[in-house]
Automatic annotation (TrEMBL):
GO CC, one annotated term: plasma membrane
PANTHER family, sorted: UPF0060 MEMBRANE PROTEIN YNFA (PTHR36116)
Keywords, sorted A to Z: Cell membrane, Membrane, Transmembrane, Transmembrane helix
Protein's name according to its UniProt entry: Small multidrug resistance family-3 protein
Membrane-spanning segments: 6-25, 34-53, 59-81, 88-107
Organism: Microbacterium enclense
Entry-linked Pfam families: UPF0060 (PF02694)
SUPFAM superfamilies for the chain: Multidrug resistance efflux transporter EmrE
InterPro entries xref list: EmrE-like, UPF0060
Keyword Flavoprotein: no
Amino acid sequence: MTTARIVVLFALAAVAEIGGAWLIWQAVRENRGWWLALLGILALGAYGFIAALQPDAHFGRVLAAYGGVFVAGSLAWGIVVDGFRPTMWDYIGSAVALVGAGIIVLAPSTPVSE
C-alpha cells in the first residue's frame, strides 16, 4: 500500500505543479487572462500540500525523488496538452530521471557514514 500511495501522491503532485505552472504560462506568455494565473497559484499551493502527504519524513528526499517525476510528467503534459513532439533524448533523459527517483524512494535508507 505504501508504494501505491507514494506513486499516487507523486502523480497528483505532478498534475498540480505542472498544471499550475502551465496555467501561469498561459496567462503570462499566451495572454489568455490573468484569472488563469490565479488558478495556477492555487494549483501550485495544492502541490505543496500534496507533497507534504508523502510518507517519508525527509523533505529533501521527497523533493529530490519528485524531481524525476516532474521531468517525466512535464514531457507527458507537453505531449498530451500542447502537442509537443519529444526527441529520443527527451525520452532517455526522462527515463534516467525516473530511475533516479526510483532509487531514491525504494532503496534502503541507510545514511552514508562519515
